[in-house]
Amino acid sequence: MDVGDGERPFDVASDSCGQLGVHLSTDEDCEGDGPGQETFNDDEPALPPDLAWLEDLYEEDDDDGDGNGDVDQNPSVVADNGEKRSYAATARMFKLRRNLDQLDCFHRQKEHDVLKAREELNLCRQNIDGLVKQREDLENEIKRQKAAENSVAVFRLRSQHKHLCQRLQSEEELEGHINTDLKQQEVELSEVAVELGRFSSLRQEVQEEEQVFRVLKAQKAATRIQQERKAGQNMQLKMLRLRDKQAAMLMKEVNDRQKNIEAGQASRKMAAKHLKETIKRMHQKEAEKEQQNRELLEKRIQAVKSLKSNIAATQESLRIQQRKAKANAQKKEQQQRQLRESLQAQGINSIKHMYQQKQLEEIKQKQEEFAERQKSKRVEIAAKILEEEQLVNRRKRRQAVLHKPSTTDSFPSLGRAREKLLHYLDPSPPSATKEKATILREVSESSSSSSASSDAEDPEETMYQEGGHQSLTESLAEPEFSGLWDQNSKKLQDEKAMSVQTEVKHEQPAISSGKLNVVVQKVHGKELRRPPFLSKPEIIIFKDFEVGKMYKKKIVLTNNSYITNHCKLLGVSTHLKDFISINFEPPGSLSAGMSCEMQAVFQPMINEDLEGEVQFASAMGPFSVPVRCTIKKCDLEVDSQFIDFGLHVVGQTISRTVTLTNKGALATHFSLDTAACLSPESSHVQVPTQISANTCQEISSENTTSENQRSSASTGTGELQPQQDSQELSEVLQQEQSVSEPSATGPEAVLESCVSTNVDARMDHSEGGDISLGNVREGHIGPFESIKLEVVFTPTIPGEAELDFHIKFSDISSKPIPIQVRAVAVSIPVWVVQPSIDLKICMFDHLYQDSIMVQSRAKTALKLTFDVCREMRKHMEILPKTGFIQAQSSFNAQLKFLPRCSLSKDAKKFFDSDTGVLEVPMTVQVAGQVKPVHFTVQAVVTSSDLQFDRTEVDFGCCSIYQTVISSVRLTNLSLLPQDFGFLRPPEFIEVQPNDGFGTLLPQETLEIDLIFCARKAKEYSFQLSCKSGINRDFHLSCQAVVVSPPLELSHSLVQFGATAVGDHSTTIISLINRETNHNQSKQPIDPQTKDAMTLVAPRLFSFLPPKDSDISIAPSAGTLLPGERCLVQVTFRPRLLDQEIKEEALRLFHRAKLLREKELERNTHTEKEEVPVETSKGKKVSVVPNNSKVSDGPKTEQLTEPLNPADIQPGSVQYKDARASLLYSFTQRYREYTVPCFVSDRILPEDQQEQPAWSPFNTLDLQLQCPAVQPALVVISNNGLNTIDFHQVAVGEKVIKRLTVQNISKESLDLRSSVLDVHGVFSLLNALRCIRPGDKHTLVLAFSPCLEEKYCETLEVRSQKMTLRMTLRGAGVVPAVTCSHPGGVLDFGYVLEKESITQVFKLQNSSAVAVGFRVQLASLSPTRPQGGADRVAFLLGSNTGSRVQPTVGTQNYSGLSVFSVVPVEGSIAPEQSQDITVTFQPDHPSVNYSDRLTIELSNKSKVCMMDLKGAASSHNMYLYGGDLLTVPVESLLPPQIASQPQLAESEVTERPTIPVLVTLRAKCNAGSITPAVRELQVGCIRSTQLSKKSGEFFWDNVASLQQQGFSVEPGKGTVEAGHKRTITVKWTPYSGYKPYDVVQTCVPVTLKGDETNVYRVTLIALVSTTAV
After folding, report:
1. Which helix (H) or strand (E) holds 1544?
2. 614 neighbors 572 (Cβ within 8 angstroms)
3. Does the pLDDT at position 807 exceed 70?
4. How far apart are CA 908 and CA 918, in angstroms?
């Protein structure tokens, strides 16, 4: 904002704290302006970002002002001059407000700073006052210490005083600085206050402007609210219109959706019908496949049986042969023995004679075997010769067709050569020669027949034979037999090959076992077959090396094992040590995947190939890296060894190129040699002894043919090689030569003459032929270079031309490369490219076209005329009929063939009406050519008829709810496939398969199903139209009668979902009686039912589901009144039938039987093998186990024991295994059931006692589609049953059973269960979880009956795939258990300390179930108060003076229970008893041992409760009775376990007496006194530890007792061990007794046993009126 020039800005400078200045402009400082006004420039700058909303606000104001000009404006909003408030004024107001706010904030900040400075000044002054006071105190202290002459303290205090003065000085300086700052800040504050006073008027003006602005803003808000209200009303109207439009669109969509649903339902019905038929066929195919599998299984079983019988017969025959051989050997040995004896008797050396005779027999046998081999070889050679001759004949015929001169000119007198060769091969007598001639004749006849059949082959086969001509020429160039000069080299090669084979055989086990470079590693249980280190590169190769140079190569070894390994260099192969050195530093231990490096240095000294290996050692075993060093070599090859020029006209010149490539690093010189066939490397044929050039040629050609055939045979079998065959033949010929011993000069002469003749023929042919080589015939080829060699073909005469030459090289190691060149020259200028035009199969009255291509080789244009025979002119035409073919080009003519039905009459000569074959010869006349060009048109003409097996289909009578299917057979009479389709059939009929569309193969008959389903009762007569693919119609007439039954099903088709075996699916349908009392049945159409139209009456219905099916219907029968509806529940429960399970069990049994038989046969075979045992004389005797025959008998009987399906009972092991096998292998099963619902005729009141009539026309059919799938959950425990029976369980007890289920599906199942009755007796104790495929889960179920009754409940285990239902059953029984002890107190008496005594009582179970019990002791009860709280309660109670004892008395010091029970818990079988043994074993003397024993059953009921009591004494004699002197419990303090101090001798001799108090109360009643009587017990404890078995007692001072009125009986006595005696103490008041006097005396009682004890008995007597 720019202020006018007259304005004086007031700046408040920022203080030292960095506060910003506040810039304000007042209207008082403006020059030339009136009071209260401010001047602004017109060009206002842009607003700051925080005031940018003003611009939008004023834009809205402008819009509102434009749109609402009639709105009254507030006068306070308008300026004094009546104009509208400007944008600049509003902006100035906000800027002034902002500056005033900043000034106020600045004023508050200054006030805060002044207050803060004042606080700091006060604090500083307080510190100064404190320091001054401390200084004064220090000064006083210094004076006091000086007075005390304490110099040390004075020095210390002076130091403190100095430090305090320094602090005081600094505080005073700080006070001055703070005071200065405070004054400065007060001045600034006063200046700011002055400025605030100056701008008070400006502040008031801003407040007034703000008030005006708020009023304006409220007015604009009201205007905006009014506009928004109008816009809202308009929007509501729009929403109403949109809602109405959407409702209309929704209604339209609903209608369209309803139509689509109806159309979908109709299509689904059609698809369901088709699906039903398809599934039916699938089931039929599956049944057939299953039947085939069963038949195959039966065949296999029969085969196994026959194999077994054959094996037995073979074994028997082998035994017979062995016996015969043994007998023959014995007979022969006997003959030899007799011969030896006879010779010895004659004086002849029998051993020498017999040895010579044996040698003669062996020689004779070898000669016979050799003769047989010769004969077989001769027959093979003869057969091969005949095959070669046959091949030559084929070539002759083919060359004759191509106008080639006869091949007999080049190969004359082949027959004579064959005879001479056979004569040479078989120097046998004439009879053998005749036999061979006969054999050859037979072979030739067979070969001629085969050649005759081969002549009729297709032209493609002929071309294939021409392609095989190359192998013929190659074999002609190679002789079959090796020459004499090659025998030595052959032997050497054979020896080398044998040695190499031997080495390979020795190396094969090592390689196969993996011991060469592969070490078997076992790491973490895994066996790894691979080398411990990997080499990169895998093979160290030094290629194309030169002698004298040095080569280096870097190799990286990587640890390939799974453990830390090391590597150690062992060395290189022995023959490489002079040339290769390894630079390798052992790297130490290498982790898996780590690498190390080495360097191989190769310095060759000889020019030879070297191979070896570098050997290493590692922790996993040795390994090696192969090394291969190769010298520079020539690697020569050509791109093609066979050049075929094809057919060319005489006079042309054609050239082809052969590329010779050297892939090696060594250069060589090459030359082309057409006479290279003489070299022994490429020719190894041994010729016979006849001297004739023609014979040699014939033999070579025949051998070549046989060689080709043999090579092709070897290629097919993959076992024989041509070189091996030639070697075998050469060996046979050599043997024949050695046997016949021919002259050495004969074969050599024949060889020379034959070779010379062949060479002359070859040279003549190569020089005078049409094929010649190019200019390059020799030259030099460098390393890795290529050279192109040209071959030129210039035909001069028609016929076949050929040329064979070799490329020879100066390098000795490079073999010559043979090249074969073939070409054919022809002289006909015009010919038809396709001499036989085959139109394949054609139909009558259809047009077929083809193209005829004529090719010309002539140099000028020629005129062509196509001629069609007169008989075929109605059916065949060629366009154009005349044309000109240009020079060396082609001409195309169009052949049109339209066979008509009169073809058999018009062209009887060319057409066979039985087979439909048409063969027409055609000619092309060429101008200037005498011989026309012939070609043939062939075709097979057939009809296009489709035929039904009948002309009319009658569906009969059916109801509107039934579907009738009738089948017709449609046959294609044509030889071509034909498409067909039933077009526009009526809506009540369906054609299947494929909705009546399909394709019929030639002569195929298809069965078509016509499905008739009408919904209206009337007579139907209609016609179906079947149209073929060529638009021909074939009609079929149909008729039917439809009636309406009285009852109706709401759904005639029920499609159950895929239900698992063991689960069930339920659906509910309605059966409705549509009849009323005002209408009649809709069956007047059928004549048989016209008399049934009477008044409507109730109808009976009955569903009849198939037997042994998985379907149940409820209700299955009933009565329906007119207009009544009945709900019918249909349930599908897929299950496995007993017959299926038994068949599966039988199959498993047979399979196990076969496996056992095979195993038995293997064991029998191994046992019956003869085991050679060496005797003492060195002879080997075969030992056969004697127990082999014994062990076979029982096993064979067990295996042959048949299994009857009736013997397999449910619950058996076989039944369980078979059921599990079926469930695990169950895939899916689809079954369809048709359940008829029979409906009776009317039931009149007078006919209710009679059986109603059932009409077949009233029958309803309910179609059920029931797919069953494999259950996802199966029960693998409880024998696979889903019923868990807890049987009888005692009331109050809990019985737990477990049921295991397994997930056999391929998906995880989340198990959930149904809710059992929360107040019931069954409960599921564990939670269900998600189980993965194959996992198992155990359900823990509990049964706890509360009443004596039977219980049953169903538990459902649900998953996303099925629901497994389990039935829980059980019965509650009230237990009846009694105890032999009546209860109350069980007193054990006195026992010596640390000894025990037992008592036994019985529990008898009279109920029918086992009952569990538990024995509880109060001392061991967990509810007993801890820490002796019961004792405290007893001690503090009111029973301290009585003889009442607590439940749990004194306990052992050792912590063990005084009373023990065996058994503590258990179960009592029905009608059985259980002994309970209670043992009392104290560890210290006490008379207060007590406990409470409770017997409780498992249902918390108590059988009995008894109190256990006992006492313990340290001596065998004891006295008890009298009054209680102490509490019946021991002290709460634990006993002193520490050892007692040693007593003096006097204390040992004087034992303390045991006090006993006996109170006698005499009863005074009516003046008479009844004497008081008390009893004391003296007992002797039986013990096996004490030698003294009895004890005695006596009273002292009995006379003094009598004086006071006391009497004791007996006064002394003896007590046997285990017994006790009663001492009676009686008091009778003596004379002179005063009433209410207490008589007291003390008498000692001595007990003698193992020790002597003295009891001090205090007798107190008195008279009481309340004594009992």
Report:
1. none
2. yes
3. yes
4. 10
Quick one: tokens of 2? 């720019």
Cα(537)–Cα(555) distance, integer angstroms: 6
pLDDT at 205 over 70: yes
DSSP three-state, residue 138? helix
The answer to whether residues 570 and 622 touch, using CB atoms and an 8 Å cutoff, is yes
Say what angle helices 350-401 and 722-740 make with each other, to 10 degrees. 120
Torsion of CA 670, 672, 675, 677, to 10 degrees: 60
Task: Determine contact, residues 448/387, Cβ cutoff 8 Å.
Answer: no
Position 425 scores a pLDDT of: 46
Q: How far is CA 401 from the centre of its chain?
A: 67
- Confidence category of residue 393, pLDDT binned at 50, 70, 90: confident
Q: In the prediction, which pLDDT does 647 show?
A: 79
CA distance 1668 to 1659: 18
Q: What is the token pair recorded at 181? A: 């700052």
Q: Give the Cβ contact number of residue 1000 at 10 Å.
A: 21
Neighbours of 487 (CB within 10 A): 13
Element (H, E) at 208: helix 200-346
Q: Span 474-492, mean pLDDT?
A: 43
Q: pLDDT at residue 1465 above 70?
A: yes
Structure tokens at 353: 């004679």
Q: Hunting for tokens 């009863």 — which residue is that?
A: 1563
Cα 215 to Cα 61, 286, 1182: the distances in Å are 13, 95, 134
| Residue 275, both tokens | 């699906």
Contact 1075, 1123 (CB under 8 A): yes
Query: What string of DSSP letters covers 994-1061?
Result: GGGEEEEPTT-EEEEEEEE--SS-SEEEEEEEEEETTS-EEEEEEEEEEE--SEEES-SEEE---EET
pTM: 0.39
- The region of weakest confidence among 13-22, 320-329, 967-976 is 13-22
Residues 6+ apart with CB under 8 A from 164: 131, 134, 135, 138
Return d(Cα 1313, Cα 1299) in angstroms, integer: 14
**More confident call, 489 vs 919:** 919
**Residues 68/69/72/78 CA torsion (nearest 10 deg):** 110
Question: Which residue type is seen at 707?
Answer: E
Give the residue, 1531 or 750, on which the prediction is more confident.
1531
- Which whole-number Å values give the CA distances from 316 to 313, 320, 321, 1168, 1366, in the listed order? 5, 6, 9, 13, 60
Instruction: Report pLDDT for 1527.
Output: 64
Is 218's pLDDT higher than 70? yes
- Cα 266 from Cα 262, distance rounded (Å): 6
- Can you read off the two tokens belonging to residue 1043? 């009636």
The type of residue at 1365 is R
Q: Please name the residues in contact with 1394: beta carbons below 8 A apart, sequence gap of 6 or more.
A: 1481, 1482, 1483
Q: Strand 1005-1012's sheet: what is its strand order? A: 946-948, 964-972, 1005-1012, 989-992
Convert the pLDDT of each residue in 1287-1323 to its tens digit.
Answer: 888 888 888 999 999 998 888 999 988 888 888 899 9
Query: Can you tell me whether residue 820 is helix, strand or coil?
Result: strand
162 Rama class: left (phi>0) / alpha (psi -120 to 50) / beta: alpha
Per residue in 854-912, pLDDT tens? Answer: 988 888 888 999 999 888 888 999 999 999 999 889 999 999 999 998 888 888 888 98
- Residue 1266 burial (CB < 10 Å; 0-12/13-18/19+)? buried
Percent of the chain with pLDDT strictly greater than 70: 74
What is the identity of the amino acid at 1465? E
Residues 6 or more apart from 315 whose CB is under 8 A from it?
none
Residue pair 475/392 in contact by the 8 Å Cβ criterion? no
| 3-state DSSP assignment of residue 373 | helix
> For residues 241 and 249, what is the distance between their CA atoms, to the nearest angstrom?
12
Residue 758 has pLDDT above 50, yes or no: no
Is the pLDDT at 1561 greater than 50? The verdict is yes
